[in-house]
Amino acid sequence: MMADYAYTISYGKLAVPFYRVYARPLSGLRPVPESSFTGRDNVLLAAQVDVEVFGENFLPAYTKGDNTHVVATDSMKNFVLRQALDYDGATLEGFLDVLGHRFLAMYADMEALRLSRVRGKRRALPSHARRLLDRHPRLPSPRGRVYTGRAPMRARRLAAAQGYRQLLHQLRA
User: Fold this and answer.
1) Catalytic sites, residue numbers
2) What is the tens place of the pLDDT at every residue in 131-163?
3) Within 13 A of 113's CA, how many CA atoms are on the CB side?
4) Class of domain 2-118+151-172
């Protein structure tokens, strides 16, 4: 009877905070009429990352209590933190791209994933991180603007996408 249905199974880990000090500077950008932004020092690259994974392989966890293919959410968190340490890029969007590819390479049971980040709010940073930023006069003061932003990113395996298309074709026939 379960073959008569198509399932979308997802779960994940929300708000994984990371702080990367002295990331590669983002420089050499040309300003556009809407903004004078030309780069940043990246003394502190901070964000919270949300991870949501998708896969039909996770269905037995809900129907049979079989967690064989489930990746523990604490493992997801640790993976994000480890990748943040290794990331040598200059943007949070670039980090999400690298993170998505590495997640899919590491965990074969994940068919797709959705990552998003919220850039760290300076006032919400731990005191030691705020002190680090206070020593760098080119960065905004804690009383200055709070920089936030959201960047979603989705990744999926091509084989899984082809499998979904075949399934949809069979369901329509």
Assistant:
1) 13, 73
2) 666 665 454 444 443 445 566 677 777 665 555
3) 27
4) alpha beta
